[in-house]
């Protein structure tokens, strides 16, 4: 019989694609993940990975075991969802995943009212630019910049978030050459960056960052012009640097797994998000 912890570590590796990424997900070091995979191989008497100089790669047997492990995980999550659905009081942990800028500037600063209403509720806020899988229980609720496509989710459009060009008052008063602030290569295909590239044309970029909050702070420091949502521009005292026609928008979606949407603690948070976030967006 194999150790379930060995399988959990192997499953994390197969999902993440590398030892280091799996270790980060599990909160352990990469040597522990490697040791657990070796232990699972010994228990199953199967070679699950090819140990290459710079990476591990799944063998054919490893791919099959990873598929079975995923099926087992789904069954486990379904059981958790079933058990949670019978809960009658608003208590316990809810994991909310959303882009960091939205979590920090819109959600986190409005949580006082929620906790006053439900003091036994515990939130875990996960700032992530990638989509969290609700099916694999990476989160209970997610706010995403594109419509989630997992088939067992209940999704609703919260609204549209408008972006415009902003700069600091000092920059607007003194700049002789327009310089821009944008995403780095990790977000080069995002709608915001593609739109900003069109606005900038041949004019230079002074700074790139994968974090919108850093872009806003740099913009406030007078480095150049950034593409930001209005709430973030207001936080930093920025002024519009483009015409009224220079605007773009992205959809903001709310998603929850269909098995737990009526669970009191989940419903309390989704209702709160609908009440607090939707009014800040354009419908």
From TrEMBL:
InterPro entries: LTTR, LysR_HTH_N, LysR_subst-bd, WH-like_DNA-bd_sf, WH_DNA-bd_sf
Pfam families: HTH_1 (PF00126), LysR_substrate (PF03466)
An example molecular function term from Gene Ontology annotations: DNA-binding transcription factor activity
Keywords on record: DNA-binding, Transcription, Transcription regulation
Chain ranges of the HTH lysR-type domain: 2-59
UniProt family annotation: Belongs to the LysR transcriptional regulatory family.
This protein's name: LysR family transcriptional regulator
